């Protein structure tokens, strides 16, 4: 994905990846702030919580 986020000084390439990861049978998601959130019992629940986290962060901005 080529583009510019609000905080980027110039256009650059951004790679999207799956934020949900599996560690020792539990699901977590990673953030841009380089944290791991979780654990969650299923991949679907981790994905739901990822979206909720993004919405909370956007309300803060």
Q: What composes the largest sheet?
A: 3 strands, antiparallel
The Cα radius of gyration reads 13 Å
Average of the residue pLDDT scores: 85
**Percent range of helical residues:** 25-40%
Structural class: alpha+beta
| Spans of at least 5 consecutive residues with low confidence | none
What is the number of helices? 1
Describe the structure.
- The chain has 61 residues and is an alpha+beta fold.
- The protein has a domain at 20-61.
- The chain is built from 1 helix and 5 strands; from the N terminus they run E-E-E-E-E-H.
- Strands 3-4-5 form a 3-stranded antiparallel sheet. A two-stranded antiparallel sheet has the order 1-2.
- Strand 3 (20-23) and strand 4 form a beta hairpin.
- The longest helix is centred in the C-terminal third of the chain and has 18 residues, at 43-60.
- The radius of gyration is 13 Å and the shape is elongated.
- The two termini are 23 Å apart.
Provide key terms for this protein.
two-stranded antiparallel ribbon; 30% strand; alpha+beta; three-stranded antiparallel β-sheet; 61 residues
Short note summarizing the structure:
With 61 residues, this protein is of the alpha+beta class.
């Amino acid at each position: 994905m080529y583009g510019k986020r609000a905080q980027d000084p110039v256009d650059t390439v951004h790679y999207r990846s799956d934020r949900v990861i599996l560690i020792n049978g539990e699901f977590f998601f990673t953030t841009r702030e380089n944290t791991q959130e979780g654990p969650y019992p299923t991949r679907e629940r981790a994905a739901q919580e990822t979206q909720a986290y993004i919405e909370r962060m956007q309300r803060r901005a």
